[in-house]
Amino acid sequence: MRRALPTLFEGFVRPRRDFVPAYRNLTLQELRHRAERARETLASCRVCPRNCGVNRLQDERGVCLSGRWAEVASAFPHFGEEDVLRGWRGSGTIFFAHCNLKCVFCQNFDISRRGLGARPLKPDELAHLMLALQEAGCHNINLVTPEHVVPQVLEALVVAVERGLQLPIVYNTSAYDSLESLRLLDGIVDIYMPDFKFWSPDLARKYLRAEDYPAVARSAIREMHRQVGDLVVDEDGLALRGVLLRHLVMPGFLEETLAILRWIRETLGPDVYLNLMDQYYPAGLVSPSRYPELHRRLARKEFQEAVAGARRLGFWRLDVRWRF
Question: What is the DSSP track for 57-99?
C-alpha cells in the first residue's frame, strides 16, 4: 500500500528491501549474552533509575511493583499510534503493567499503578505474544512502559528471534530509563519513542514522584539518539529506525514545554520527528480537591502557542495528527 509521503520525510526515506531489524545483525550468542547481563541487574535491582536494590530474581518488589516476570496487561494491533507506526495493519502493542514513575495524572492509572488485568509472562510466553502480533500482520513490536522490564524483554527476544521474529522493535518510554539498560539495548531497538514530560525538578517531584526525572530524561534521550539517530521511514511512510520524540502539553505549563523544546533543538537539532500531544485530560489522582490546577482540559490557545513555539525554534518534522 504505497502512499505519497509528506514533505516532512524528505531526506529520511530508506527502501524497505534494504532494511533489517537491528537485532538481526547480532548473533544469537550476543543476544543471549545481553539477556544474561540484563538479568544480573535484577539481583539487586538497578534496571531503572530508582535503583531499589531489591532481589527481583526472588520476586521481591520495589517502587515499580514488578517482580521476576514482566506483567502484561494487553497486547493487540494498535491503530491509535502515530501514522508512521500504525500504518494500515496496526502497531503490535504490548502494554506492560506497573511503572517506575508515579504520575498523578496517569491516563492508564489502573494498569500502571494497580496492575489490573495483568498477568506475569515467562520469556517463552512473551515471545509467543510478539510472534502472534507478527502473524497478525502488525508493522512493528511496540513495547509500552518497558523501563522496568528490560531484562525480561531481552530474555523473551532471544526466544522470539530463534522462532523467526522479523519486525522492528519500538521502545515506547517515559524516558525515565537507566543508561545501563539502554546500552544493553544498543543494536537491538530500532525505534525509540520517549515522552519528555517535565523540565523542572520541582514539578517532576510533585507530579511524577521523581525529582531527578528531567536530568535522567535528558541523558536517556541523548543516548537513544546516539544509538539510532533521527527517524527514518520506508517508501510507504512506516518508521524503520530512529527517535520519535513525544511531549504531552500540560494545561498551565507552557514554559515547561518551551524549555523542553529549546533543549531538544540545542541538543538534537531541528530534524527530530516531534509529536506535540494535545490529549491531556484529568485522570488518575487528579480531582478538584487534589491537584486542582490540573483539573481541566488543555485550552486550544495553549496548544497553538506550543506549536508556534516549536515552529519558531525551527522544528519542521512535526506530527500532523492534531485535534486543533
Answer: GGT---TT---SSEEEEEEEEE-SS-HHHHTTT-EEEEEES--
Q: What's the one-letter identity of residue 149?
A: V
CA distance 71 to 186: 24
Q: Supply angle C-alpha 160, 94, 221, rounded to 5.
A: 95
Phi, psi (5° rounding) for residue 19?
-95, 135
All cell numbers assigned to 100: 517506575
- Domain 9-312: CATH superfamily, name plus number: Aldolase class I (3.20.20.70)
Confidence check: pLDDT of 322 > 70: no
Question: Quick one: pLDDT at residue 116?
Answer: 87
The rounded distance, in Å, linking the Cα atoms of 77 and 89 is: 7
What DSSP string runs through 236-301? Answer: TS-EEEEEEEEEEPPTT-HHHHHHHHHHHHHHH-TT-EEEEE------TT--SSSSGGGSSPPPHH
Contacts of 33 (CB under 8 A, 6+ apart): none
* Exposure string for 211-249, b = 16+ CB within 10 A, e = fewer: eebbebbbbbbebbbebbebbbbbeebbbbbbbbbbbbb
**Size of the chain, expressed as the number of residues it contains:** 324
Burial tier of 164 (Cβ tally within 10 Å: 0-12, 13-18, 19+): exposed
DSSP class of residue 24 equals G
What is the pairing mode between strands 169-173 and 232-233?
unpaired
pLDDT, tens digit, for every residue of 197-231?
Answer: 999 999 999 999 999 999 999 999 999 999 999 99
d(CA 21, CA 10): 22
Rounded to whole angstroms, the Cα distance separating 252 from 235 reads 39
pTM for the full model?
0.97
Q: What is the largest CA-CA distance in the chain?
A: 56
Structure-block grid coordinates of residue 140: 512493528
